[in-house]
Amino acid sequence: xxxxxxxxxxxxxxxxxxxxxxxxxxxxxxxxxxxxxxxxxxxxxxxxxxxxxxxxxxxxxxxxxxxxxxxxxxxxxxxxxxxxxxxxxxxxxxxxxxxxxxxxxxxxxxxxxxxxxxxxxxxxxxxxxxxxxxxxxxxxxxxxxxxxxxxxxxxxxxxxxxxxxxxxxx
Length: 170
Description:
Shape: elongated
Strand content: 25-35%
Radius of gyration: 44 Å
CATH architecture of the domain at 87-167: Roll
Largest sheet: 4 strands, antiparallel
CATH class of the domain at 87-167: Mainly Beta
Order of helices and strands: HHEEEEEEE
Mean pLDDT: 79
CATH topology of the domain at 87-167: SH3 type barrels
Helix content: 10-25%
């Protein structure tokens, strides 16, 4: 029976708290967030992408194209321009830095250099032969070196000469 009285006492106490005493607090909590709506600003206008075309008449170089001029499509003018129509020789497939002079031969009053490619293949060359990837022509061959005149093109399309040598490796 004691339990029944304690349950009755607790329920009466709770009923007493449920009166109109805190109604103003309940109304405040209920209406406090009514006028607080979040405001999101509209996104900014997105401008459409306008691609820029690099044209020759603007004078601007396209940064996405290789800077090395394409020799096959180069203009056919210029004082020092090499002969682009001649057949290429075997040693023109190799960069000059990958070729090594490993010997010297003197046959029929003509000096020949013995050159080894990066692939290990041996070649015999003399003055007048072409060598390297920059239209290099051998100007002279001695017992210790091969002198080469290369033709290089700058970004403006002008050709200029450059002297190079291959030294004998002992």
